[in-house]
Write a sequence for this structure.
């Protein structure tokens, strides 16, 4: 890019949405526009890679605190607290469109956090002395590590692994979305390979929790104010403790404004006969606690036998926290921030024509690599995960994946460049 290049005019949000809407209208009736992976001009994109943007650790301290409770109900509530904080970016900021991930692209980072226990929460089985708005175990910090890789291009799927070794808590899963444009909004659903987030607590006899994603709508396209609404149910199950949670998101409008209401119940269930999917079908005798509140504000739980709701978490003061990234000189060429670096720099410099040109070159190179593999009848395999997708939705790390994650833990990010070409 020339040093004398004149920055182009930055499109405002209104003109961005009009252009975006005109592109989307071409996909009315398409079953899944996410699988089409249409290419947007650079001025409509958030200058961030998808793998860096899309993670569930906007507040990693809630993840690190899972498993502290000695009580089974308390541990399910800790899982729920993590759930409500995982996507703060959509509550505190505007939804955006990052770069489409390319096959073999990967991202890794970490956070150093303290345990998180709201003073008012008083979770069952947690001994803590209230001191201020949060309760910490002294000044001890623990590390939460994250590794993700684009494992499939058609359909677009990425695998991820989260680990907090000091706490013995980990999580994994496949990210894939299905999107359909209705003409006024985009309905976003988990894809067929996205079976949710699987959380494991090693120090609690390897309890595993499966957290499924609800359907959501991206609205506001016509009025120029993007917003995400949810009016669906999702589920958290732990077969070992035989405890299940159902969360029902209720979008009740008042003078055109959503209230982001939430209702839920935590109850005993039979893992071998798991048929209950509605709040009203839960037998009162099985109920352990009820959940209520706003997923944009305060969320409460009320244990069975009590009439007084207790604060589980207050979303209001929370914002996404910054990541610890590998040094630029230790990032590989197919690592998200370096891979898209030239596009990001051009967008930030408001050189949108240049950014679009570089982006299109990247996309054309990936198409050519795919064609070369097809001609040679070569099968592409992920580097850090054992398979592109699995029937169980729970990816396993390869030896290189374990090495990469260990490097994130230790701060030694050095890896060899892969000889396998992406697509």
């Amino acid at each position: 890019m020339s040093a004398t290049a004149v920055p182009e005019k930055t499109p405002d949000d209104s003109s961005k949405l009009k252009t975006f809407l005109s592109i989307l209208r071409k996909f009315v009736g398409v079953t899944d526009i996410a699988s089409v992976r249409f290419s947007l001009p650079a001025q409509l994109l958030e200058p961030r890679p998808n793998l860096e943007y899309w993670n569930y650790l906007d507040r990693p301290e809630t993840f690190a605190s899972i498993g502290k409770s000695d009580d089974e109900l308390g541990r399910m509530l800790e899982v729920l607290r993590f759930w409500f904080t995982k996507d703060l970016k959509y509550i505190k900021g505007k939804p955006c469109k990052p770069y489409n991930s390319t096959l073999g692209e990967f991202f890794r980072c970490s956070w150093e956090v303290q345990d998180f226990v709201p003073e008012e929460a008083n979770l069952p089985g947690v001994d803590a002395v209230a001191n201020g708005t949060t309760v910490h175990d002294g000044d001890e910090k623990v590390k939460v590590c994250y590794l993700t890789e684009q494992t499939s291009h058609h359909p677009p799927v990425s695998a991820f692994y989260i680990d907090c070794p000091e706490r013995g808590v980990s999580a994994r899963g496949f990210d894939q979305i299905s999107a359909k444009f209705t003409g006024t909004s985009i309905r976003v659903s988990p894809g067929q390979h996205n079976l949710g987030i699987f959380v494991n607590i090693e120090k609690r006899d390897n309890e595993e929790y499966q957290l499924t994603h609800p359907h959501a709508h991206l609205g506001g396209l016509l009025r120029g104010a993007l917003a995400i609404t949810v009016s669906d149910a999702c589920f958290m199950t732990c077969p070992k403790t035989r405890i299940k949670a159902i969360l029902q998101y209720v979008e009740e409008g008042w003078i055109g404004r959503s209230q982001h209401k939430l209702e839920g119940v935590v109850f005993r269930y039979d893992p071998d006969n798991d048929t209950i999917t509605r709040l009203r079908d839960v037998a009162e005798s099985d109920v352990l606690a009820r959940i209520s509140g706003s997923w944009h504000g305060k969320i409460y739980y009320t244990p069975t036998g009590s009439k007084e709701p207790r604060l589980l978490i207050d979303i209001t003061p929370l914002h996404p926290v910054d990541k610890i990234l590998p040094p630029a000189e230790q990032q590989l060429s197919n690592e998200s921030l370096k891979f898209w670096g030239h596009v990001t720099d051009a967008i930030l410099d408001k050189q949108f024509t240049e950014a679009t040109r570089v982006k299109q070159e990247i996309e054309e190179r990936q198409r050519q690599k795919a064609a070369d593999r097809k001609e040679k009848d070569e099968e592409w395999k992920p580097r850090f995960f054992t398979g592109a997708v699995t029937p169980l939705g729970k990816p396993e790390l390869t030896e290189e994946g374990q090495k990469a994650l260990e490097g994130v833990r230790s701060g030694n990010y050095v890896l060899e460049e892969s000889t396998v070409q992406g697509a």
Observations:
- Residues 128-138 have pLDDT under 50 and may be disordered.
- The two ends are 26 Å apart (CA to CA).
- DSSP finds ten helices and 18 strands in the chain.
- The first strand starts at residue 106 and ends at 113.
